């Protein structure tokens, strides 16, 4: 890719002359302008560098604390990212996707003005990540929850425990007592708090929580979820219902049941979380908790841009609302 220096050398003019021609500022003879324009074919200006000269990169970093495979296969993150992109586009900001960056490197990006702020899209990180970023005065907003952090941090989230509680209570309400839960890594705040909701719902209904009915998927991949589902369905005292921490995990129960000659919902009821598009496409359609994934991303980006542009110290934001979508994947257990 050509640089301004390359163009200046090829046209036989100074760098400042090239700059005047490309930016259409100041006087240049028509002959000189023609030389520069011919030499500038295939030149693309470094927009980020131009903005940095003005004191702003107009770039927002989006930090993802998962593997690329998990992130790009998860429809929840796709919706959140779409919301972020739309909000940034409205203010003419660009997005820099960061995968599992070290906290020290994030701060360097901020200090060197390569990013103006940071959106943390998941909370699977080492215990002092958020504290460190706050100590270094990096402007950031957390999308989700981080249950181990007690600092006042700006975040956009839902009440994960509340809606997991409602999902499990629904299963109990239609007669299920042997209810399994397939969770993602408990270092992820949403997974941890949803498990708390699962436990509390059973306890409040007088049902003993059996640890063998809880399966943890540390990588969160579809293969691991399928293996977890099979473990629940292979048990001598098989569960009659499964609550999955997201729709992808819940749908893995469909495949596990099919492999064992079982049917959803006749033999096993299933509830998911997210209400991703696939929930209404599978057969039977999936009962799930609908959360505002797009709104999470859009709202978090808006809040961060307000902090970046206006230095507003945002008050704690209210949790976004969710609701259950009842479809065809749940029936009362067989007698």
What is this structure, in a nutshell?
The chain is α/β, with parallel strands linked by helices and 335 residues long.
Order of strands, widest sheet: 7-6-8-9-10-11
List the domain count as a whole number: 3
- What's the overall average pLDDT, rounded? 86
Q: Main β-sheet, in a few words?
A: 6 strands, mixed
Which outline best applies?
A: elongated
Number of helices: 13
- Determine the structural class based on helices, strands and strand pairing: alpha/beta
As a percent range, the share of strand residues is 5-15%
Helices and strands, in N-to-C order?
HHHHEHHEHEHEEHEHEHEHEEHE
Look at the structure and give the CATH class of the largest domain: Alpha Beta
Description:
This protein has 335 residues and is of the alpha/beta class. The protein has helices at residues 4-11, 15-22, 30-39, 47-53, 68-73, 75-90, 103-111, 129-135, 160-173, 189-204, 222-234, 247-259, 293-310, and strands at 59-64, 94-99, 117-120, 140-143, 155-156, 179-183, 214-216, 241-244, 269-274, 287-290, 323-325. A six-stranded mixed sheet has the order 7-6-8-9-10-11, sandwiched between helices. Strands 2-1-3-4-5 form a five-stranded parallel sheet, with helices on one face. Helix 6 (75-90) packs parallel to helix 13 (293-310) and helix 11 crosses helix 12 (247-259). It starts with a helix and ends in a 10-residue tail after the last strand. Keywords: DNA-binding, Transcription, Transcription regulation. It comes from Candidatus Enterocloster excrementigallinarum.
């Amino acid at each position: 890719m050509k640089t301004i220096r390359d163009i200046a050398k090829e046209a036989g003019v100074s760098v400042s002359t090239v700059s005047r021609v490309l930016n259409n500022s100041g006087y240049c003879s028509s002959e000189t302008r023609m030389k520069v324009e011919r030499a500038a074919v295939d030149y693309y200006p470094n927009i980020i560098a131009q903005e940095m000269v003005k004191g702003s990169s107009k770039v927002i970093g989006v930090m993802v604390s998962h593997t690329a495979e998990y992130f790009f296969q998860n429809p929840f993150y796709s919706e959140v990212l779409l919301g972020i992109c739309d909000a940034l586009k409205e203010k003419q900001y660009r997005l820099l996707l960061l995968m599992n960056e070290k906290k020290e490197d994030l701060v360097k990006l901020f200090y060197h003005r390569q990013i103006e702020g940071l959106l943390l899209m998941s909370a699977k990180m080492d215990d002092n990540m958020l504290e460190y970023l706050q100590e270094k005065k990096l402007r950031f907003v957390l999308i989700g929850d981080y249950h181990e952090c007690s600092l006042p941090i700006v975040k956009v989230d839902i009440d994960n425990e509340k809606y997991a509680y409602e999902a499990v209570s629904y299963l109990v309400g239609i007669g299920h007592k042997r209810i399994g839960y397939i969770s993602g890594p408990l270092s992820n705040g949403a997974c941890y708090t949803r498990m708390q909701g699962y436990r509390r719902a059973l306890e409040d209904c007088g049902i003993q929580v059996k640890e063998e009915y809880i399966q943890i998927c540390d990588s969160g991949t579809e293969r691991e979820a399928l293996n977890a589902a099979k473990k629940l369905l292979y048990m001598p005292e098989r569960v009659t219902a499964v609550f999955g921490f997201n729709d992808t995990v819940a749908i893995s129960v469909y495949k596990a049941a099919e492999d064992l000659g079982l049917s959803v919902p006749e033999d096993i009821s299933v509830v998911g979380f997210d209400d991703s598009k696939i929930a209404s496409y599978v057969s039977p359609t999936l009962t799930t908790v609908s959360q505002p994934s797009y709104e999470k991303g859009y709202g978090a980006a808006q809040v961060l841009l307000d902090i970046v542009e206006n230095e507003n110290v945002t008050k704690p934001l209210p949790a976004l609302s969710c609701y259950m979508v009842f479809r065809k994947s749940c029936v009362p257990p067989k007698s």
